Amino acid sequence: MKNPKKIIISIIAIALVSFLTIPLSVKAETNEETRRAVFDSGHNVNVKIMNLAGTPIAGLGGSDDTVTSIKRSDSLTITPTEENTVSAGNSEIPIYMWFDNGTIYWYTEDENPKLNSDSSYMFSDLIKLETIDVSNFDTSNVTNMSYMFSGCS
How far apart are the C-alpha atoms of 76 and 96, rounded to whole Å? Predict the structure, then answer.
């Protein structure tokens, strides 16, 4: 018959090893969570785009004929302000936009920023818009894209 002291010591050792590994695995899962950038609502982003492009009646049924392209920038080349911030209030990482020579550039540190659940009207009434790169947008939470490109040619 095996020594009872050795069996008890083995059980304690197994319990101790199990106890020590549980917090480590939970900690590893927590560290793997990533912070996310989330765009503001489609309507709010549209108003900011038009304001940045100098459209005087932005968000009041007007249209813009200066924006021809919307694309991601590799770097932030402007000073962040409230006027060029297009991230939602719950966004953990900010998103910025600016206008330069017919192009709206956007920048965030998040590789795949999320579009807002309500992305309706986001690019509407940009009547000269020819190209837009949406390849990095995470649309998994979007429930409303109505009129997203309304008025675009």
Answer: 8
Q: Where are the alpha helices (DSSP H) in 32-146?
A: 42-53
Rg (CA), the chain: 25
- The two three-digit tokens of residue 143, written as one number: 């429930």
Q: What H or E segment, with its residue span, contains residue 12?
A: helix 4-31
Going across the sheet that includes 95-100, the strands are 95-100, 103-108, 69-72, 131-132
**Which two tokens mark 73?**
């920038």
3-class SS of residue 17: helix
Q: How far apart are CA 144 and CA 25, in angstroms?
A: 38
pLDDT tens string 104-150: 999 999 999 999 999 999 999 999 999 998 889 999 999 999 999 99
CA of residue 29 relative to chain centroid, distance? 22
What CA–CA distance (Å, rounded) separates 60 from 56?
9
Residue 2: per-residue pLDDT:
53
